[in-house]
Amino acid sequence: MTPDAFGQRVREEASHFAFIRSVNTLGKSANTIKLRLHVTAECFIQVYANLRKGLLSYTLVFHQTRIYGRDNDGTGWHCHPHSAPESHDFSVEESRSVSLAEFLDEVQQILTAEGIL
Fold first, then answer.
1. What pLDDT score does 70 carry?
2. How many CA within 13 A on the CB side of residue 57?
3. N or C: which end of the chain has fewer CB within 10 A?
4. Which DSSP letter does residue 81 get?
5. pTM of the predicted model, to two decimals?
6. Mean pLDDT of the chain
7. What's the average model confidence in pLDDT over 17-45?
């Protein structure tokens, strides 16, 4: 898959979530792409992919601080839980593969619980 095709897939998936206001490409190279999915003026989701290395990162940011995330660092998935986003959870449940749609569902639950949506 090319970065352009990955970006298009992210845009298509994000279009199914009403809380995503817009999607912008922040950077792109021959193998990488970084996108920002805007939620509010203070809240966004950043998606980064290095397609050659198999790296994928989903990060929920509020007031310029990560409050939740899921990453595949090339060796496997892990979670930065909402309760402790600076930590890494490699438990069986949190090390499973997660699609963007699953991550956006989780984000919607977090933002609703926090009163951001």
1. 96
2. 18
3. N
4. -
5. 0.92
6. 94
7. 97
Stretch (H or E) spanning 69: strand 65-72
Banded model confidence at residue 18, pLDDT cuts 50, 70, 90: very high
Tokens read off for 40: 């509010």
The DSSP secondary structure of 1-62, one letter per residue, reads: --HHHHHHHHHHHHTT-TT--EEEEEEE-SSEEEEEEEEETTEEEEEEEETTTTEEEEEEEE
Strand partners, 65: 62
- Closest C-alpha among 82, 116, 62 to residue 70: 82
Query: Cα–Cα distance between 67 and 80 in angstroms, integer?
Result: 8
Do the beta carbons of residue 85 and residue 67 sit within 8 Å?
Answer: yes
CB 58 within 8 A of CB 99: no
Q: Which among 44, 49, 17, 18 is positioned nearest to 33, based on CA atoms?
A: 49
Residues counted in the chain? 117
Which residues share a beta bridge with 48?
34, 57
